[in-house]
Amino acid sequence: METVIVVVHVIVAIAIVGLVLLQQGKGADAGASFGAGASQTVFGASGSGNFLVRATTIAAIIFFVTSLSLAMFARNQSGAGSTIGLPVVNQDILEETISAQSDIPALEASEATSNQSDIPALPDNN
Predict the structure, then answer these.
(1) What long-range pairs does 5-9 form, CB within 8 A, spacing at least 24?
(2) Rounded distance between C-alpha atoms, residue 6 and residue 111, angstroms
């Protein structure tokens, strides 16, 4: 079933590209693409506008539906349900990590605020 939807999806995508390329710009004349009066005889009195717009709309709706269907297939195959995909943390490992972090030496308050440094100060050139 998924293969059929993928094939339909690709065909509709190609059809949308073709239909969009066939459509005229706002200032273009209908006779520019089909010859002098050929557009009137091929697509009726209204010209090619209505036919191409309707065909593009239908193709876009089909493309949207197949996109949603493929997204649902991908979601079901990935096994994503109510889980977000976060790793499961073992409580023992978490406690060991926290206790190991407390063994790290830290600077005392008096050492951290000391102005003494191993870098010599620049001389004043007054």
Answers:
(1) 5/66, 5/69, 5/70, 5/73, 6/70, 8/62, 8/66, 9/63, 9/66, 9/67, 9/70
(2) 67
Closest CA to 48 of 73, 67, 21: 21
What pLDDT digit, counting tens, does each position of 34-59 carry? 555 544 455 555 556 788 899 999 99
The one-character DSSP state at 88 is: P
Q: Which residues contact 39 (CB under 8 A, 6 or more apart)?
A: 30, 31, 33, 47, 48
* Type of residue numbered 34: F
Query: Does the pTM exceed 0.70?
Result: no
Residue spans of the domains in the chain: they are 2-78
